[in-house]
Amino acid sequence: VGILGLGLIGGSLALDLSQLGYQVLGVSLQTTTCALACQRGAVRVASTDWQLLAGADLIFVCVPLDQTVPSVARLAEFLPEGVVISDVASVKADIVAHCSWPWFVGGHPMAGTAQQGMGAAVQGLFRDRPYVLTPTVMTDPEALISVQMAVQDLGAKLVLTDPVAHDRAVALVSHAPVFVSAALLLAGVQADTELLGLARQLASTGFADTTRIGGGNPELGLLMARHNRAQVLVSLAAYQTQLQKLHQAITEEDWAQVVQALQTSQRVRGEFSPLPPAPPPYPAGPRRAE
Ligand code: NAP
């Protein structure tokens, strides 16, 4: 198996696949990353030379989202026939439309941490987490089977869906929440200095839980907004509608309406799959230079 981009996701895939007995070939941008991947036993060989990947049967492209399509196109120029490529990017419709080859299978593991780079890669990151594959009518069934087998070996929960449905669903449960959470933080800092000082002192686990993803890496949020723009806007509009309804009910002191909304939200929360505890982070190792 080849891994292009030995960061959080690529490195974690490499660690698991090596542990499972796959011979993993890694390619990354920086020699320091390649050295760390070898040191951690994530790869059998690592290089900054893309030709190394010509020896793989299946390649996972794990570079930043906006580099996925150009990377797949560059691989297609020199890889021998029959090599299967899958990606891990968190937006699918645009990427799958640009990579409409029979040997390409769009993918997205629904797992991650707030960290980046090979130093942050962890074993078992994908275990029991959903791993989405988005085959199309163009996809070679054998290519799909080879990616499916690797995903199942990782212990992930395989989900097959079409790329647009994937983007709509992740907008709702992953992308829009980043902006909702960011808006809550931005609203908080608009308070006057005295109130803000007290609010900062009093903020506890509830505020920390609600704002965790709004305080994450701005580059990732920007990529979500740019590459899944239409679906993020649909989800944010639905959120605005619900917020407006709650605002109106509180304004009108319509407590029956308020309690009904909160009872519904309490009930439906359990319908979204609960997450297993995250694996512990790797303690040592240099961080990737940004
Ligand atoms: P990351 O930790 O920053 O890793 C990306 C790696 O790609 C970097 O370590 C970098 O390697 C390498 N890279 C960048 N440009 C390259 C190039 N031109 N050639 C070869 N390697 C290159 O990012 P990540 O979080 O793993 O994200 C990677 C992909 O996973 C993205 O498409 C993202 O949408 C998807 N994803 C992320 C998460 C998440 O929670 N983070 C979850 C699911 C899916 P060097 O260290 O050598 O510079």
Question: Explain this structure to me?
Answer:
The protein contains 11 helices and 9 strands. The strands form 2 sheets. The chain has a 6-stranded parallel beta sheet with strand order 3-2-1-4-5-6, sandwiched between helices. Strands 7-8-9 form a 3-stranded mixed beta sheet, covered by helices on one side. About 50% of the residues lie in helices and about 10% in strands. It is elongated. α6 packs across α10. It has about 290 residues and is an alpha/beta fold. The C terminus is likely disordered. Bound molecules: NADP nicotinamide-adenine-dinucleotide phosphate. NADP nicotinamide-adenine-dinucleotide phosphate binds next to α1 and β7.
Using brief descriptors, characterize the structure shown.
single chain, 290 residues, elongated, disordered C terminus, binds NADP nicotinamide-adenine-dinucleotide phosphate
Report helical residue fraction: 40-55%
Based on secondary structure, the structural category is: alpha/beta
Relative strand content: 5-15%
- Flag low-confidence runs: 284-290
Number of strands: 9
Radius of gyration: 21 Å
**Helical segment tally?**
11
- Through-space gap between termini: 27 Å
Arithmetic mean of pLDDT: 94
Describe, in short, the structure shown.
By secondary structure, this protein is α/β, with parallel strands linked by helices.
